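Job type: complex structure
Entries:
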Amino acid sequence: MKKVAVVGVGQTKFSGPQDKTQVELFAEAATDAIEGSNLKPKDIKALFLGNALGDFEEGQGMVASYAAENIGCMYVPTNRYEGACASASMAVRDAFMWVASGYYDIVLAGGIERAATMGTGMATRTFAMFSDSRYEFPSGITFPGVFAMLTYLYSKTYNVPLDKLREQMAKVSIQSYKHGSINPRAQFFGKNADMTVEKVLSSFMVCSPLTLHDCCPFSDGGAAVVLASEEVAKKLTKKPVYITGTGQSSCGPLINQKDFLPRIRSREISSQQAYKMAGRKPQDIDLCELHDCFSIASLIASESLGFFEYGKSGEAWEKGDADIGGKVAVNPSGGLKAKGHPIGATGAGQVYEVARQLRGEMEPDNQVPDAKIGMTDTLGGDCATIVNMILERGW
Amino acid sequence: MEQKLYFKEYNEALKQNKLLGLKCRACGMITVPPKMACRQCGSPDMEVTEVKTDGKIVTFTTIFVGAEGRESEVPYTVVIVELEEGPWLMGNLEGIDPKAASIELIGKKVKMSTQVFPGDKYSAGETVRPIFSLVN
């Protein structure tokens, strides 16, 4: 396998409903990524694009081909990836595989979504399509509902009293809001820096016990990354960020995951693949952009990734062990909670953040000092698709 | 290879409050709802069996923000129930005040009935959902 580098990244501001089309959102992010790589659109050999719900958002299918043509990448193969909220990470991982194989030397990957444009009712309906349509949705389960059920299960399994757990979860949201408030491309830029435990707990109940501030927003946005082989990357940039490990795993409906929940077995398997490929351990990771679609999701993810003991990660957030300056900086971008979650673009947005961290390009208060090794973690559906990537400085 | 039990037959039986599952001839595990392969060992060599509907609540949530088309149902309580024979089922809990549903529900014994969810324009027809109620 060839070494593969991220040579350029781009991302729109993640936002609530706005007027740009999905293709336009991708074009902005992709053109920044291509120009930042010192490349031209004609240099791109293929496009791999995450997009979960474009059919419902704009009545647009097969969006990858239109996106490529829009930015001047003519006649290249274009693949659309749908893995719910993990769509873009699947796209980036497959782009990595194609470059690692030697078949292509330069590939563009990314994702787009206009979930916020659908409005809450339609977004809630379409997100529920990622639960089992025959055996789960008839009960009226929603996406936050899945993680609400995992919250009670977590409390029971690890004997963390619910009141204490909810306070720990509130601290996850507070940390994310703090970082997101100074990230100019975050949906909650300039907002919610003054969040308190009381405000989180007393905000609107979405599905018990999750309140509004436990939940990420619906978002619109696009993100893109250019991947290149090592030999090409060395000619393009002095700061290639190598993807040194990847993993991906899947499983069935939530009710079929009974042997492990609230542990996410697919995440344990995916992350172990990534660690093994990179020759790294959880303790080596300086920062991780992980899938905090809900506050409880951060706790569950950080345990499956091996950062903290099962049932103990809430204490890590209380002590600052999951913040910049702690054991591992979790979501210094603000994460899905505060940066936003345009589901088909989220994974590429995580790679965007980790690459910029390793290059030292963040806002000063969101920069993890001397970050050398970063990780991404993206979850799709009711824990049924997981993708992990480890990225490292190449200089 | 044909599946031993399809959604259609499972759904029709559920309408009669009868829960059908698949018993693996290789490892003995009961798989519900139906799949091609045993949830434990992956063997397709399974036979249709009627599964007891008694169980206990594993977890739950009360939904206050519903999907488009289902707004009038809120608030309602969704539960996962572990059946006596092992499998988990997702359904609704009725006979309680959904707003008052608390963590004390976990571990409580329930019995099952069913209700038809008529479906919406995306759901390819109706599906039957389990409705659980507490056993005193």
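Summary: The CA atoms of residues 99 and 105 of chain A lie 5 Å apart. Residues 4-119+218-393 of chain A form a domain with the Peroxisomal Thiolase; Chain A, domain 1 fold (CATH 3.40.47.10).
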